[in-house]
From TrEMBL:
This is PGG domain-containing protein. The chain crosses the membrane at residues 28-49, 69-88, 109-134, 154-179. PANTHER family: MATERNAL EFFECT EMBRYO ARREST PROTEIN, PGG DOMAIN-CONTAINING PROTEIN. It comes from Populus trichocarpa. The lineage of its organism: Eukaryota, Viridiplantae, Streptophyta, Embryophyta, Tracheophyta. Keywords: Membrane, Transmembrane, Transmembrane helix.
């Protein structure tokens, strides 16, 4: 109670789990949209017979690299689309069942499973997008098998940064999902 004798907001105000889910899902869909743009940028770089920046013709990527680029881009797009659609479906589910007790086991399992599927869709989308970007590097800079130091630097930096990002994202996201499914309010 404050000085006037009325109940004030406590610092430990109970968080509305629906609002937390909705904000997290909005962020996930926004990130997936950015990655989807990267997919289409990568697809625009798959030209047959394109020469790399290396001066040696043996360093130019063969058509198989361009084909693999397209396949990885399509797969990553599919995972980002899966993740976004599941996230949007979960938002609708949260709004429809807002009045029901969110602590029921059935609703927790449904919400946790959908959030898990959405998160793993983004994770696999990132993995395939990274693999496609390595192919973009090979097309533009030179094949890794050719020993191009610039291709190794670019691909190595990309892989290291993505692994670091996923190394942070995956455990924290899995913990949050586990906590949301098992926590009692």
């Amino acid at each position: 109670m404050d000085e006037s004798g009325e109940k004030g907001e406590t610092p430990n105000k109970r968080l509305d789990t629906t609002e937390i889910y909705q904000k997290a899902l909005d962020d996930l869909v926004n990130v997936n949209s950015l990655f989807t743009i990267a997919v289409f940028v990568g697809l625009s770089l798959a030209h047959p017979g394109e020469r790399s920046l290396e001066d040696r013709t043996e360093c130019d990527a063969d058509p198989d690299v361009a084909k693999r680029l397209v396949v990885f881009e399509v797969i990553s797009f599919a995972f980002f689309l899966l993740s976004s659609l599941v996230a949007k479906t979960l938002k609708v589910h949260l709004n429809v069942y807002r009045q029901k007790n969110p602590r029921t086991i059935k609703l927790k399992i449904i919400r946790g499973s959908m959030l898990l599927l959405s998160a793993w869709g983004s994770i696999f989308g990132c993995v395939f997008l990274t693999m496609s970007m390595v192919d973009v590097i090979q097309i533009k800079v030179g094949k890794l098998s050719c020993g191009s130091v610039y291709a190794f630097r670019a691909a190595g930096s990309l892989i290291a940064i993505v692994l670091l990002a996923l190394g942070i994202y995956v455990p924290f996201m899995m913990h949050a999902i586990y906590f949301s499914m098992t926590h009692r309010e």
